[in-house]
Amino acid sequence: MDSYQKWDVIIIGGGLAGLTTALHLASQNISVCLVEKNEYPNHKVCGEYVSNEVLPYLQYLGIDPFSVGAKQISKFEITDTNGNPITAHLPLGGFGISRYTFDNMLFEALKNKAKVLFDTVEKVIFEENQFRVTTQKKTALLADFVVGAFGKRSNIDTFLNRKFMQKNSPWLGVKAHYEYDFPSDSVALHNFNGGYCGLSKTETGAVNACYLATLKSFKKYGDIETFQKQELSKNPFLDEFFNTAKPLFNKPLAISQISFRKKKPVENHIFMVGDSAGLIHPLCGNGMAMAIRSAQLFSEMFLKLFKTKNYDRALMEKRYASQWHNEFDSRLKTGRYIQQILMHPFASKVGFAMVKTFPSLVPALIEKTHGSPQI
């Protein structure tokens, strides 16, 4: 095994949260090593809509998503399982951009400022007030701090024996890009029995279709194409989409075991950011922004305390956990509440009827799952 290389911070995982954290810290002369298993660019199962709440922060980091063609989005449409629509204006608005382009954009900004190691972390050991991290390729790393940005679920979650990994999750996510005539200023959420599907345009003009479904509803059909034709297409909007849209991927991307169970923002002295700390239900359309915002929360806290050179690890952990809960607990709770309503046929019917009567409820609920722009 190689001799250990020492860093101030090791970041495990190079998605939005990991890349943003690395870019922020490295820009402030913190020595950073980011470990990511896949080289860029690559596609990921993701809704690919980002709330404008993170635009000022991205601009602070020198990242302009519109420079690569991100679509400005201001309108929202939701349909019930029968295709009855409700439209609303998005209070903050957002933008559509593929993870293929967005992650790569952040990587290009980072690669000359920090060490980016394409490898898979196998072990993270904390002892004598520092971390030892070892990888599949036998690289050995030392750091005072580790940031967990390894996403929805990872072998590291298993290694750390995190509680949410002990129970199976009933959710499956599927995503693909399509050529389709869809308004570039809109995001749509179409419900079907067992889940919901989001549609929005990306920077290439392709429409990203990403849906979440219960494994129970999916297993009746056995494969993605049959499921889409026979279950999703019961919603007339999805029927029209999947019958006329031209697929741009050889096959859709899919992930299973997506867990929305509660997680801790700090575990085993590792600071969790993005989906590693908590996953909001995709129907809220705010997972990407939350990942970036959690990176901002951690980075600002870390820089303020670490640069004193007399940092108190326990204080840092306590402060970050408190800030994370204050920022996100209410959003996650609202997301779980909306999800429960939409997945229950009678409650969903009542909910849609209420929103039809009181249309201002839609932007009010959206605001409860989003934050305010901050820098």
TrEMBL record:
Family matches, as Pfam families: FAD_binding_3
UniProt-listed Gene3D superfamilies: FAD/NAD(P)-binding domain
Chain ranges of the FAD-binding domain: 7-296
Top-rank taxon: Bacteria
Name the record gives this protein: FAD-dependent oxidoreductase
